[in-house]
């Protein structure tokens, strides 16, 4: 009884916001109360994210059962006198509240209630159609039944398709296949006007390009058609170490320059990371495999030197000849200048490799180190300035305690479509530098949230003062001027697209790019 009263009053409050004379049943989406939830647990869950640094409550959480449900709630806001904000939430793995919706509605696209539409694979045309909230791990499971798999990945698979496509979706395959947004054939999108539009490169292309890397600003992706390839069965996974940064980047750049070669003459995945200190929290993405390491990392890193680890893989099939796999790997390794005897190799099933970060997640969870604040900073650094970045940041600002993995790997700009909403540095090659750090309030002073946030500010200030020309990936800004600077020449196109597809600024206000016309009413509500 008490729950019903609460539900009724919450619905009435939402009605007051939208300024319509609606009956509460209108919000119940075909009569099932569970779909528009005012439940405290749902509200609280939707007010948090992986970053654990921002908490903003919505008024309600919609668990949609179709694209039509998504369209219905957005249309309701768009056509009402006052309106309310709406944000899609994938798995809530943002850092700075990007999928939150202050006093509005969060549409929970992924979640324990399952997805409205099961993935549908076309074996012949090698694609899969998936719900926008589908997690990549489930996309993989469904395509593997047909011996197929997507080509471009993120390192972690418990992220939603709509969430990664709203950013770009990158991993060590991006040098070869481009980011995930370069591997999508078409999408269904619900715009900020509540219209459902199917779009692709050659169909409603303005909206297609807008939503790719569009930070949720132009519409909610409810279906994506993702390109597939025959799935490899196994992976040779190799790590080699460098103490010389210029040898490290030279080799990374050489390896990604091979993208146009036949697959026998290139690696399938190229990443790398910086090793400042060892330990679970620092290297949860990178614990070394072999118990009989030929060299101890600490012996190479004598004198507190920074080390760099190149990480590469070679995919192969059950039918591959093991001897030719060895030969292909050896031929590529011979061209590299890593520290002799610093080679670590393992061989594992493809799925286990793709899902490697989940293993680390379980380890961190068991030690209470997963649900902590994550002041992550991801930067695209132009190739021409990566050495300056190394001097100023890895060997300068960071000191010898990193509090989380630091990834560094280059990508080829020609694999990115400039028509999309993403911004990358204006050079043929650029690096991702991902500072994936965890704050531990009860730990050492060097690991506190304040300290890590302060270091992030120092890094951004250093890049600005030295005119490094970085662009943030998974960007976070708090003023429109900063967003305008981020988009640079692309801002006018970004703005025009916003006016066309979400003119009332209903969508993804957690990104803090556009002020909505009804924010102030909501605050006082
Ligand atoms: P959310 O955080 O829920 O949403 C992100 C943004 O997209 C929000 O603005 C939201 O409103 C919008 N959005 C969500 N769904 C939709 C939709 N269907 N349509 C339109 N807009 C939508 N990224 C990489 O590229 N490579 C990596 O290797 C990688 N590894 C990661 C590892 C971990 C452990 C974590 C926590 C994150 C990682 N990320 C990586 C970042 C990840 O891409 C982002 O967190 C991204 O936002 C996806 O998370 P999500 O699906 O939970 O989306």
Helix % is 25-40%
Distance between the termini: 25 Å
Tally of helical segments:
17
Bound molecules: flavin-adenine dinucleotide
Question: β content, as a range?
Answer: 15-25%
- What is the arithmetic mean of pLDDT? 90
Described by the principal axes of the CA atoms, the overall outline is globular
Strands of the widest sheet, in order across it, are: 14-11-13-12-16-17-15-18
The beta-strand count equals 18
Which stretches are low in confidence, meaning pLDDT under 50 for 5 or more residues running? 1-8, 19-26, 28-33, 520-525
Q: What does the main sheet amount to?
A: 8 strands, antiparallel
- Radius of gyration, rounded? 23 Å
Structure in words:
It is a single chain. This protein has 525 residues and is an alpha+beta fold. The chain is built from 17 helices and 18 strands. The strands form three sheets. It has an eight-stranded antiparallel β-sheet with strand order 14-11-13-12-16-17-15-18. Strands 5, 6, 7, 8, 9 and 10 form a six-stranded antiparallel β-sheet that branches. Helix 13 packs antiparallel against helix 14 (449-465). It is globular, with a radius of gyration of 23 Å. The protein starts with a helix and ends with a helix. The model is unreliable at 1-8, 19-26, 28-33 and 520-525 (pLDDT under 50). Flavin-adenine dinucleotide is lined by residues 49-50, 87-94, 98-99, 109, 132, 154-156, 159-160, 162-164, 166-171, 215-216, 220-221, 474, 508, 510-511.
């Amino acid at each position: 009884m008490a729950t019903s009263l609460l539900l009724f009053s919450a619905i009435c409050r939402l009605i007051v916001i939208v300024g319509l004379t609606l009956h509460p049943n209108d919000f119940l989406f075909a009569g099932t109360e569970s779909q528009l939830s005012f439940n405290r647990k749902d509200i609280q869950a939707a007010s948090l994210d992986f970053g654990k640094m921002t908490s903003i409550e919505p008024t309600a959480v919609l668990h949609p059962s179709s694209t039509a449900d998504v369209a219905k709630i957005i249309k309701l806001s768009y056509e009402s006198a006052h309106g309310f904000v709406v944000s899609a939430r994938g798995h809530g793995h943002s850092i700075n509240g990007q999928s939150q919706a202050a006093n509005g509605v969060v549409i929970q696209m992924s979640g324990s209630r399952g997805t409205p539409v099961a993935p549908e694979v076309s074996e012949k045309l090698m694609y899969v159609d998936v719900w926008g909230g589908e997690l990549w791990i489930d996309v993989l499971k469904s395509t593997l039944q047909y011996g197929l798999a997507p080509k471009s990945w993120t390192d972690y698979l418990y992220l939603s398709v709509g969430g990664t496509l709203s950013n770009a979706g990158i991993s060590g395959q991006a040098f070869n296949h481009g980011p995930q947004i370069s591997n999508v054939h078409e999408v269904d999108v619900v715009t900020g006007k509540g219209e459902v539009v199917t779009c692709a490169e050659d169909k409603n292309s303005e909206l297609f390009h807008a939503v790719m890397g569009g930070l949720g600003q132009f519409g909610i992706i409810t279906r994506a058609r993702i390109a597939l390839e025959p799935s490899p069965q196994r992976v040779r996974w190799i790590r080699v170490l460098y103490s010389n940064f210029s040898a490290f980047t030279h080799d990374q750049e050489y390896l990604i320059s091979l993208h146009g070669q036949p697959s026998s003459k290139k690696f399938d995945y190229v990443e790398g990371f910086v090793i400042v200190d060892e330990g679970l929290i620092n290297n949860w993405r990178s614990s070394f495999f072999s118990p009989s390491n030929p060299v101890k990392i600490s012996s190479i890193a004598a004198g507190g030197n920074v080390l760099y680890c190149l990480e590469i893989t070679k995919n192969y099939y059950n039918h591959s000849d093991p001897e030719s796999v060895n030969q292909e790997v050896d031929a590529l390794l011979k061209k590299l200048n890593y520290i002799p005897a610093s080679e670590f190799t393992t061989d594992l099933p493809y799925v286990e490799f793709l899902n490697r970060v989940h293993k680390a997640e379980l380890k961190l969870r068991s030690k209470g180190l997963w649900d902590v604040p994550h002041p992550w900073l991801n930067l695209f650094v132009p190739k021409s300035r990566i050495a300056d970045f190394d001097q100023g940041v890895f060997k300068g600002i960071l000191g010898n305690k990193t509090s989380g993995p630091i990834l560094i790997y280059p990508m080829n700009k020609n694999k990115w479509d400039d028509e999309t909403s993403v911004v990358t540095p204006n050079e043929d090659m650029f690096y991702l530098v991902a500072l994936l750090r965890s704050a531990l309030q009860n730990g050492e002073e060097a690991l506190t949230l304040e300290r890590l946030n302060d270091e992030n500010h120092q890094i951004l200030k250093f890049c600005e003062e030295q005119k490094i020309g970085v662009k943030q990936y998974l960007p976070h800004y708090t003023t429109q001027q900063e967003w305008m600077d981020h988009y640079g020449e692309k801002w006018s196109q970004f703005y025009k697209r916003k006016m066309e597809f979400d003119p009332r600024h209903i969508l993804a206000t957690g990104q803090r790019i556009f002020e909505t016309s009804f924010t102030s009413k909501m605050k006082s509500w």
